[in-house]
Amino acid sequence: MEIQDILTNEVASPPTVYHKLKTAIENPESTFQDFAEIIRSDAGLSSRLLRIVNSSFYGLSGPVDSITHALNILGVDQLGDLALATVVMTKFQGIPKDLINLDNYWRHNIASGLIVREIALLFGEANTEKLYLLGLLHDIGGLVLCKESAGIARTCLNRANYEGKHLHQVEQEELGFTHAQVGGELLNRWRLPELMVETTIYHHNPLNAPKFPKYAAIVHLADILAYEMDFGGSGEPFIPPLGGQIMEFLQLERQQLSGIKLSVQSSFEEIFQMFYG
Predict the structure, then answer these.
(1) Sequence-ordered alpha helix ranges (H) in the chain
(2) How confident is the model at residue 56 (pLDDT cuts 50, 70, 90)?
(3) How many C-beta atoms lie closer than 10 Å to residue 189's C-beta?
(4) What is the Cα–Cα distance from 22 to 140, expressed in whole angstroms?
(5) What is the mean pLDDT of residues 93-104?
(6) Which CATH class is domain 3-276?
(7) How many angstroms separate the CA atoms of 138 and 55, rounded?
C-alpha cells in the first residue's frame, strides 16, 4: 500500500467552503465582498466564526458584529485559517467509535492547538492564531487511515495497545509509513503552507525537520502536554515521554509549562464548544 492509495479524491479535496475561499483569495480580482459572500453562504459557519471572533480565543477589545467587520479586523488570510479550523471536523464523520472516538480526538487536537499558541507566545510569535492550526491538524492523518482503511487502522491500534508501542512505530512496521506522513501529504494536497505540512510530518521526530524544527518541536511538546492534561487522545496507548532534548532545544524550563497548562485549562471548554460543539 502507498499513501496515494489512501488519499481518495473525496478525502484529498479540502472542505468545500474553505476551498472556495482559498480560490477567491488567490484571485487578485476578488474583493472583500466576494470573501464575505462565500462565508455567509454557509449560515452555520458564519455564525460560528462570529462567536469565535468574539470569544476569548481572540480577546478583541470590542464586539465584531458581521463577517465584513471580522474581515476588516483579522484580514482575509487569518479568517480563512479560522474557517478551515472550523469546518475541517465535518469531513471525518462516520468513523467507527471502536477505532477513534471523535469527541476525544478533537478534544486532544483542539487542546494541542491551544497549547501551541501558548508556547508560541513565550517566543514572542505574532499571529499565534495561525499557529493554532499546527496543533489542530497534526494528527489528521490518523483520521484518514481510520476513514479510508479501517481494517489496517484497527490492526495498528490493537498492536500498539497489546505491545505497548507508539502508534506511529506500529504503522511504520505494518505500512511502511505513518499517520504523520499521511497527514502531511493531505495538507500538501490542500495547498496549505509548507510550515503546516512539515510540522505534521515531523511531529513525532521534530529535530529531524529540515526547515522548521522549532515549530515541529513546539507541536511535539503541545501533543504530549495535551496527553498529560488528559485532554482526549488520538489513539496512543500511553502518554508519550517528553525527552529533555526537546526542552533543551526550545530553551524552556518545566516550570514555564505550568503557566501554559493553567491558561489552557481555564479557556479550554469554551473554545472546544466554539469549534466543535
Answers:
(1) 3-6, 9-12, 16-25, 32-40, 43-53, 67-74, 76-87, 102-122, 128-136, 140-148, 150-163, 167-175, 179-189, 194-201, 213-228, 244-250, 254-276
(2) confident
(3) 15
(4) 20
(5) 88
(6) mainly alpha
(7) 24
Count the neighbouring beta carbons within 10 Å of the beta carbon of residue 38: 24
Rounded CA-CA distance 96/48 in Å is: 27
Amino acid at 180: A
- Provide the whole-model pTM: 0.94
Residue 134: CB atoms within 10 A of its CB come to 26
Helix (H, G, I), strand (E, B), or coil: what is residue 172? helix
User: In this predicted structure, what is the pLDDT of residue 169?
Assistant: 95
Give domain limits for the chain: 3-276
All cell numbers assigned to 103: 469527541
End-to-end alpha-carbon separation of the chain, Å?
Answer: 36
Buried b / exposed e over 72-104, threshold 16 CB at 10 Å, is: eebebebbbbbbbbbbbbebbeebeeebbebee
Sorting pLDDT into bands at 50, 70 and 90, what band is 240? confident
Contact (CB, 8 A) for 180 and 141: yes
